[in-house]
TrEMBL record:
<protein>
    <submittedName>
        <fullName>Regulatory protein Crp</fullName>
    </submittedName>
</protein>
<dbReference type="InterPro" id="IPR036388">
    <property type="entry name" value="WH-like_DNA-bd_sf"/>
</dbReference>
<dbReference type="InterPro" id="IPR036390">
    <property type="entry name" value="WH_DNA-bd_sf"/>
</dbReference>
<dbReference type="Pfam" id="PF13412">
    <property type="entry name" value="HTH_24"/>
</dbReference>
<dbReference type="InterPro" id="IPR057161">
    <property type="entry name" value="DUF7839"/>
</dbReference>
<feature type="domain" description="HTH crp-type">
    <location>
        <begin position="14"/>
        <end position="63"/>
    </location>
</feature>
<dbReference type="GO" id="GO:0006355">
    <property type="term" value="P:regulation of DNA-templated transcription"/>
</dbReference>
<dbReference type="InterPro" id="IPR012318">
    <property type="entry name" value="HTH_CRP"/>
</dbReference>
<dbReference type="Pfam" id="PF25211">
    <property type="entry name" value="DUF7839"/>
</dbReference>
<dbReference type="InterPro" id="IPR012015">
    <property type="entry name" value="UCP_HTH_arc"/>
</dbReference>
<dbReference type="GO" id="GO:0003677">
    <property type="term" value="F:DNA binding"/>
</dbReference>
């Protein structure tokens, strides 16, 4: 991310905040640069058609400038998220879950399971650490001196397309098919989107892990290495598929309707 680009987008942000009456001196004071520097950047923004002048120091963003600013904001958010993740590498003490009974001083291997960090003396991986506070299997422990990279393979998604009410709803669902999928993927995170999907999960005695902000939750779970089974009602499937494609997450769509002619 080039310094010049950052400065120009900061100027665009200031123009959005204060338009149309924008004083270059005020922008210079906010950004900590000279008025001459602001003037140079504004000339460049005018050339790019990111802004247009109304005279007398009045500037407004063009449609091109607004799109560029939105794109930059999105990219900058991703950049900050990456930096935030890197910062955590410098923590001296990390929490983890004991895969088996562990005690202080144990040398352990680290791995992700269902979105959580686990430590084990026997499950060998590329990442190691030292236990500073032990615990029994399944308890939280404290680790330090993390070395290597914790392998996080992006999870995959099985979308169980649940028929909407106009196609029979929960009464037209192949529950045997769903039970088989659940049995074959016992560690998967369960997501439910739509009223009919929630009813179906209730009939199966399942409490979904993700019910709200489902698309974002599914992507987040996959990025943490979790496989996901999504109970998704009708055309809501299309929304989920688009988001999974955008985030390059592999998925399978299975129609759970018993009678597709209804």
């Amino acid at each position: 991310m080039k310094k010049r680009n950052i400065t120009e987008f900061q100027i665009l942000s200031e123009i959005v905040r204060k338009q149309p009456h924008v004083k270059q001196k005020e922008i210079a004071e906010v950004l900590g640069i000279t008025v001459q520097g602001v003037s140079e950047h504004i000339r460049n923004l005018l050339k790019k058609n990111y802004i247009k002048s109304r005279g007398r120091g009045e500037y407004v963003l063009t449609d091109t400038g607004m799109r560029a600013l939105k794109t930059w904001i999105s990219e900058f958010k991703n950049y900050l998220n990456d930096v935030n993740q890197d910062i955590y590498r410098y923590k001296e003490i990390w929490p983890a879950i004991a895969y088996e009974d562990l005690k202080e001083g144990d040398e352990v291997y680290l791995f992700m399971k269902k979105g959580n960090l686990y430590a084990s003396k026997f499950n060998k991986t590329e990442s190691t650490a030292k236990v500073v506070e032990g615990g029994k299997e399944g308890e939280d422990i404290a680790i330090t001196d993390i070395k290597g990279i914790i392998d996080i393979k992006k999870g995959k998604v099985i979308i169980l397309k649940i028929p909407p009410k106009v196609k029979g709803g929960s009464k037209n669902v192949d529950y045997d098919l769903i039970k088989k999928i659940l049995d074959d993927n016992k560690d998967a995170v369960i997501a439910s989107m739509g009223t009919i999907s929630y009813v179906v999960s209730n009939k199966l005695g399942i409490k979904p892990d993700i019910r709200f902000a489902v698309p974002e939750g599914v992507v987040s779970a996959c990025n943490r290495g979790c496989d996901v089974i999504g109970f998704i009602t009708g055309k809501m499937t299309e929304k989920i598929v688009k988001i999974l494609d955008k985030n390059k997450i592999s998925y399978t769509v299975l129609d759970t309707a018993k009678n597709t002619d209804e």
